[in-house]
Amino acid sequence: MKALGTLAVPLNKGTAVVELIMDTAFRRADVKLKPENVAVRFEQGVPVALNGEGFADAVA
User: Fold this and answer.
1) Do 1 and 10 touch, CB atoms closer than 8 A?
2) Distance (Å, whole) CA 48 – CA 39
3) Which end of the chain, N or C, is surrounded by fewer C-beta atoms within 10 Å?
4) Would the pLDDT of 53 be above 90?
5) Does the global pTM surpass 0.85?
6) CB 1 within 8 A of CB 9
């Protein structure tokens, strides 16, 4: 086993594919999503607004 931080993970075991709780809907054939246009404004290479609404905090 190889230790990853405090979690020991056996490398000789396979992984199971699980259905995600917050799965991306576009992957599901029974879900139809409408396309959406999004405008991003950049200043000096940094995004500062989405659809005309500026960000109050550059990190948040």
Assistant:
1) yes
2) 11
3) C
4) yes
5) no
6) yes
